[in-house]
Amino acid sequence: MATQLHLRAGPRLAGIAVVLLVMVACAAPAAPTAAPPTSAPAQPTSAPAQPTTAQATTAATTAATSAATQAATTAATTVATTAATAAPPTPTNTSAQATAAALATLPPSVEGKVVLWGWPTQITRSFDENGQDKFVERVKAETGIDVEVALVEQNDLSPKLKAALPAGTGPDILATDFDVMGPYWGFMENLNSYAEKEWGSDWRSKFTDTALSEMDLVSEIAKKPGQALYIPGNMQVLGWPYYWIKYFDQAGIKASDIKTFDDFIAVCGKLKAAGIQPMLGASHPANLVDWYQTLVEVAAPGKMELAERGKAKFNDPDMAKTFDLIVQIHKDCMQEGAIGADTGNVFNAFHRGEAAMIYTFTGTPWFGFLNVDDPQTRQNMRGAYGTFLFPQSKGLAATDGGVAMLSTSKNKDKAWEVIKWMVTGKNAERMAKEAGQPMAFKALTPGPTNTDFDKNLGQPLYNALTNGPNKFRRVLCVDVYNTLTKVIPGVVTGQISSQDAADEVQDTFDRACQQWVQQ
């Protein structure tokens, strides 16, 4: 399901949508061999859920599981993109009509039963050992509460909220994502009193600093400082490429030697010389913004945070250089046509060993692949892959999914019990122990797999999320995010220059993001 994003398109953007439409139309998708992890994002988002079979994932309607960007245009001023944040998408054949029908029938809060809305991601599902989602049955068995779950594509959740919340016809509880929730936080219940009753007056100390910082930012956005408008669930850190250990060994490469951007480009050259495709890339808009967030730290260290608050300019020469680095990565490292490639197909190609490295949503979100139903993918995760922080940059950290209570809920006490079960209780324990998910609740720590995964992927990424040099993954102003998703393909395909792209981003900030300016 593509979402029409209507933004002012200056002359710099003219024609980009047409080029992307042709690129996507010409890319024939391959049949998935394994369902990739799903995540939550409107900008990113988010960390993946434990995947089922490819067929089951395809049937799911989810934005976190939406396919890579479907770019289209009605004039050069409209670009159709699949909105997503933060999480790895999978192909979906859901038609616009089917999605509209699903949106029209989402159930509202009713007395006696807790209604949950969200998208398929780790926090909204509960898989058994056979890959079957037992969320509803387990809530009933472990809390005694009847739950109705309505999951849609993540990019379809925002219009549903827009229609339902002002009318008082929303659910009891809602899976939250930073990028979707911006206009809707004001409809959420303040959970401070519930949390204090459950965990004491110092309840915040039971959650990680990264999660608390994001909660504080949300309360600032909602103009409700200090209020807990959701409880955070699983966390994520991205910006760490994965690589096939055997290919690095074959080319004589040590990940520990990759200390600069130039080192990274040199690695791509060594892999090519060894007859190995260096890297696979994809068109997902959230991934493109992740690349910007990573490479802006190489081009202009620490300046992104200043630009987002009006204390620096997105079109300063060092900031504009970020687009040059993105182009260089695509030119020197990625497969031909990466900017139009389907994300799910790219995941599958990497698992089949068709390239040495991948960056698309890699980090903790890929831990969902530990329990995918494809045995080769499971085996790969347990011993074939390594990871490293992109050189000269920082990890991209954020909450993947939280859970909020609607102030209009007719079942607030029961709704709170379900929230606890999801973010700190039995299901949260399963997420940590069985799916390797880092949780905001400090008492829950992922269990070891007793395989090479623990030293190759688990330990470095868990440590990075807790102690590493990280930055906030999200872009504060959604209009800047949307513009980045448009100009990056334009720069990569040679339609506009890096400076023009940077000027477009700054124009957007000046026009639409003044609420973020700090004097």
How does this model look, in words?
The protein is an alpha/beta fold and 519 residues long. The chain has a domain at 105-234 and 399-460: D-Maltodextrin-Binding Protein, domain 2 (3-Layer(aba) Sandwich), CATH 3.40.190. It contains 20 helices and 12 strands. The protein has helices at 16-26, 54-59, 96-104, 135-143, 154-164, 178-181, 192-199, 209-221, 245-250, 261-273, 285-299, 303-308, 317-332, 343-351, 375-381, 412-423, 426-435, 453-467, 478-492, 498-512, and strands at residues 3-6, 78-81, 114-118, 147-151, 173-176, 231-238, 242-244, 279-280, 357-358, 385-387, 395-405, 470-472. Strands 3, 4, 5, 6, 11 and 12 form a 6-stranded mixed beta sheet that branches. It has a 4-stranded mixed beta sheet with strand order 8-9-7-10. A two-stranded antiparallel sheet has the order 1-2. Strand 3, helix 4 and strand 4 (147-151) form a beta-alpha-beta unit. The chain starts with a strand and ends in a 7-residue tail after the last helix. The relative contact order is 0.18. The model is unreliable at 1-9 and 17-103 (pLDDT under 50).
